[in-house]
From TrEMBL:
A Gene Ontology biological process term: response to antibiotic
Coiled coil: none
Top-level lineage group: Bacteria
Residues annotated as domain Phosphoribosyltransferase: 19-182
Protein name from the UniProt record: Erythromycin esterase family protein
UniProt-listed Gene3D superfamilies: 3.40.50.2020, Biosynthetic Protein domain (1.20.1440.30), EreA-like (biosynthetic domain) (3.40.1660.10), EreA-like, domain 2 (3.30.1870.10), PRTase-like (3.30.1310.20)
Source organism per UniProt: Polaromonas hydrogenivorans
InterPro entries: Emycin_Estase, Hydrolase/PRTase-associated, PRTase-like, PRTase_dom
Length: 679
């Protein structure tokens, strides 16, 4: 066998050499090349091209030893896999390990979203998988990848690198079906020594190579299916015809009192109006949603508003709007929203709506007042305190039992993520049994309260709901270090559980309540009609439609350009950011081309319109983080609009939501180009 000449020129040349060693796998229909970003992607690109196989990424993060990050003390990979490597003569505390893992977990999630963009992960089950990197030093990163890939049941798993330490290559042979190390020089020292050009690969390079590989493979597949394409292709829908079709069906919103008459007709007798938003920081989304909700209350008898917010903080608002709290005004009632992102609910639009609710409820009996409730599950420790506070008033012995059960969390110091990490990786006991026992006790207690509507029954329900939240939040934080899909599904399932609990509680008198639900489009549209379903994710809109059919109406919002209030990274201050024009070919771009600034599309009962909007297109989703510099990868996903929503409201140019606590960054206007960016 010809000896490999070292050093390699660069990663691409190394990939070509590696592909020659893997030639027997070329052309297999089940073949998949998975590259470890960043450095492994250039190598994997050449391997996938030579073997005529699809290329995807598999993200793994090295755990650098604190203070000596060049030494790997382990690695983490998608799927919650963690591998630790002993470093003789060096010691590290569990707290230091937890800090490193938390940081690298955030980076792992960021890179998956950034690199893959709208494309879901390629299925691994039953396939021949070649796992590629640019080299093996300690092997910890590759070992974590192998363990994680194994969990997805490939038929055959190959580890392939251009160069590696002999002992690392040998160790992996017991875990992979085959290991291909082209060269194993000794002494090895470091991967970069065996390349002439070994610059740090950039995110842009990874994204470009993945897109190019995807395009090349799709083209190759099409050629195999149809080697003699027709001379002239005809597009199924000329753009101008599609825009003309939309213009015939849109209902312009002019600011008149009758603007939403078609929407009121569409909602009809339905009990759940799911009112979305395309960002958590757009003034018009909040303002129009409030206007629609006021009509639902005054014209259709809606008595419940459930929002994407923590239960204890929203309960304080609920008490204020019903004249039960101690707060002097709406701004004070909203002051419980302190956790990032506080501006989602501490803003001028919500403040004004809360004051309207208070005025509307004044003079009404408790059972006919409109309530304001939260349905999110981030308030793990705050909800524990609410349970204890209730029991200390109602039953001191029960309070002691609850305090003992919840003491299981004491080691986390009221840090939800610290608890989740420690419990997930066996560094501390799981509190699952304790929170389940407490929920059962609170459920029994609530059942013993007379069914007659009143403050006593509301207080018992509030305590029970907090116990339910603690139980679900415990599982959420314990699973968030495993897969994004698990935590997403748990969160949305909790939101639906909350809506069902409210339905039972408020409907106990015999009259089913009607609810307006406020949350992001990504929660309230039907996930089954978006690429979320390809990742195994479901959401509130899908679950509510499954359970309540036509009794749940889903309304989405969109914008083409303008301004938004968002942060550049988690826990960063809110900024007033410019929203870029909608991407060409996206729903936002298509709506912009109609030339109508504000309009409603009533989709559900209009078969001609549904046919127009059935094809898959990109849709923008801005959460509490907005990264214009990576907008395509960070903020767009594919949707079938006809199945996602029953109605869509488009406002072409929008403005930033005004926080009650602006801070210097927001008040200064658009952040400078040098301001830190993040997801």
């Amino acid at each position: 066998m010809k000896e490999t000449a070292l050093p390699f020129h660069d990663r691409h040349q190394a990939g070509v050499v590696l592909a020659e060693k893997l030639a027997p796998y070329a052309g297999r229909s089940s073949l998949l090349v998975l590259a470890l970003p960043r450095g492994g992607v250039a190598v994997g690109f050449e391997v996938a091209r030579a073997l005529q196989a699809p290329l995807d990424i598999f993200v793994v993060r090295k755990l650098g030893f604190p203070g000596h990050e060049e030494y790997a003390m382990g690695a983490i990979a998608s799927g919650g896999v963690r591998v630790m490597t002993p470093l003789h003569g060096l010691s590290v505390t569990p707290e230091e390990v937890a800090a490193v893992v938390a940081r690298e977990q955030d980076e792992l999630v960021r890179r998956e979203q950034l690199y893959r963009g709208h494309r879901p992960p390629v299925s691994i089950e039953g396939r021949t998988v070649i796992l590629v990197d640019d080299g093996l030093a300690t092997g910890a990163t590759m070992r974590a990848a192998v363990l994680a890939v194994r969990q997805r049941h490939p038929a055959h798993l190959v580890v392939a690198v251009p160069v590696g330490a002999e002992d690392s290559c040998q160790a992996l042979r017991s875990e992979a079906d085959e290991v291909v190390c082209v060269a194993t020089p000794s002494p090895f020292r470091a991967v970069g020594l065996w390349y002439k050009h070994f610059p740090q690969a950039s995110d842009e390079e990874v994204i470009t190579l993945l897109e190019e590989a995807h395009s090349e493979h799709e083209l190759a597949v099409k050629k195999q299916k149809n080697p003699f394409p027709p001379q002239q292709a005809h597009p199924p829908h000329p753009r101008n015809a599609l825009v003309d079709g939309l213009q015939q069906h849109l209902h312009a919103l002019t600011g008149a009192a009758h603007d939403y008459d078609p929407l009121m007709q569409l909602i009809g007798p339905a009990r759940f109006a799911l009112l979305g938003e395309a960002s958590h920081g757009t003034q018009e989304f909040y303002r129009e949603r409030a206007a629609i909700t006021r009509r639902l209350i005054t014209e259709k008898g809606f008595t419940t508003i459930a929002v994407e917010a923590d239960w204890p903080d929203a309960w304080r608002v609920n008490r204020y709007v019903r004249g039960l709290g101690d707060d002097a005004d709406a701004a004070s009632a909203l002051s419980g929203f302190k956790r990032f992102p506080a501006w989602m609910w501490r803003n001028t639009e919500v403040r004004d709506f809360v004051e309207w609710l208070r005025d509307y409820n004044t003079g009404r009996s408790l059972d006919t007042q409109v309530g304001f409730y939260g349905m999110d599950l981030y308030s793990l420790f705050a909800s524990m305190q609410e349970v204890l506070a209730y029991l200390e008033r109602a039953d001191l012995e029960a309070a002691e039992r609850a305090r003992y059960r919840y003491s299981c969390f004491d080691h986390a110091g009221e840090d939800s993520q610290a608890y989740g990490y420690a419990a997930s990786f066996g560094m501390a006991p799981s509190c699952e049994d304790a929170v389940v026992q407490q929920l059962r006790e609170m459920t029994r207690r609530a059942a013993e309260v007379p069914a007659t509507p009143g403050l006593e029954r509301d207080a018992a329900f509030h305590a029970q709901q907090n116990a339910r939240l603690v139980r679900n939040a415990e599982e959420y934080y314990r699973t968030m270090f495993r897969t994004r899909v698990s935590s997403w599904n748990l969160r949305d399932n909790h939101m639906v559980e909350t809506l069902q609990a409210l339905d039972r509680h408020l409907g106990a008198s015999g009259k089913p309540p009607k609810m307006a639900v406020w949350a992001h489009n990504s929660h309230l549209g039907d996930a089954g009609s978006t690429e979320m379903s390809d990742r195994g994710e479901w959401n509130v809109g899908q679950l509510m439609r499954d359970r309540y059919a036509g009794d749940a109406v889903r309304v989405g919002f969109s914008t083409h350009h303008g301004w938004v209030t968002a942060a550049s990274d988690w826990d960063q201050p809110p900024q007033r950011k410019r929203v870029r024009d909608g991407l060409k070919g996206s729903w936002e771009d298509l709506f912009h081309q109609t030339g109508t600034q504000r309009f409603l599309l009533a989709l559900r009962d209009n078969s001609a319109l549904r046919k127009l909007v059935e094809p898959l297109r990109l849709q923008r989703a801005i959460g509490v983080i907005y990264r214009p510099e990576t907008e395509r990868q960070s903020h767009y996903f594919h949707t079938h609009l006809a199945g996602q929503f029953d109605a869509m409201i488009h406002i072409d140019e929008t403005h930033a939501l005004e926080p009650l606590d602006k801070g210097e960054v927001w008040s200064a206007g658009e952040a400078p180009e040098t301001f830190p960016s993040g997801m």
